[in-house]
Amino acid sequence: MASPPTCEFVPYLSINDATKAVAFYSRVFQIDPHLLLNMPDGRVMHCEFRIGNARFFVSEELPEHGGTPSPNRLGGTTVAIHLYVDDCDAIVKTMTDNDATVLMAPVDMFWGERFARVRDPFGHEWGISTQLREMSPDEIQTAAAAMFAEMAE
């Protein structure tokens, strides 16, 4: 079998009022945009954030140019961004201090991570995780089976 292609997945967040989103992500992640391009009318055409080895992009939804609708326009999202951080609780607090909504408070999960779910003010959902311990796939399967058995009682 041939080797899989080299690739990098980069979330591209479509947002109505991307200027506010750029300020939000800068505050929450304590970083400045790596690249910020504005259209002549001041709207965000493209913004790139880099956090460690990860990147994500932000732009105004720009329906007049065939842009992707934002979650707020759609009334929800079908994708969640999973972000690994050093301190799940601290990032969740920073996000909620900046008008994000906790969907699931931080909790230690059976797969060895502390995990929370948050919706940012622009409708994008984030899974925030801190690895507590390294677990093999077999250990995770065993822990999941035990959890499901406990739930069935």
Task: Record the SSE blueprint.
Elements lengths: L11 E4 L2 H12 L5 E4 L5 E8 L2 E7 L10 H4 L5 E5 L3 H10 L3 E8 L4 E7 L5 E7 L5 H16 L1
Parallel strand pairs: 1-4, 5-8
Antiparallel strand pairs: 2-3, 3-4, 6-7, 7-8
Protein name: Putative enzyme related to lactoylglutathione lyase
Keywords: Lyase
GO molecular function: lyase activity
Number of domains: 2
CATH homologous superfamily caption of the largest domain: 2,3-Dihydroxybiphenyl 1,2-Dioxygenase, domain 1
Helix content bin: 25-40%
User: What quaternary form is this?
Assistant: single chain
Mean model confidence by pLDDT: 93
Topology order in helix (H) and strand (E) letters? EHEEEHEHEEEH
Strand segment count = 8
Shape: globular
Largest sheet: 4 strands, mixed
In the sheet with the most strands, the strands line up as: 1-4-3-2
Percent strand = 25-35%
What would CATH call the class of the largest domain?
Alpha Beta
Q: Name the CATH architecture of the largest domain.
A: Roll
Low-confidence stretches: none
Structure classification: alpha/beta
Looking at the structure, the CATH topology of the largest domain is 2,3-Dihydroxybiphenyl 1,2-Dioxygenase, domain 1
Distance between the termini: 45 Å
Summarize the structure.
By secondary structure, this protein is of the alpha/beta class. Helix content is 27%, strand content 33%. The model has no long low-confidence stretch (mean pLDDT 93).
Question: What report would you give on this structure?
Answer:
- This protein is α/β, with parallel strands linked by helices and 153 residues long.
- The protein folds into 2 domains: 7-75, Signal recognition particle alu RNA binding heterodimer, srp9/1, CATH 3.30.720; 77-153, Roll (2,3-Dihydroxybiphenyl 1,2-Dioxygenase, domain 1).
- Helix content is 27%, strand content 33%.
- A hairpin with a 4-residue loop joins strand 6 (101-108) and strand 7.
- The longest helix is centred in the last third of the chain and has 16 residues, at 137-152.
- The protein is globular, with a radius of gyration of 18 Å.
- The model has no long low-confidence stretch (mean pLDDT 93).
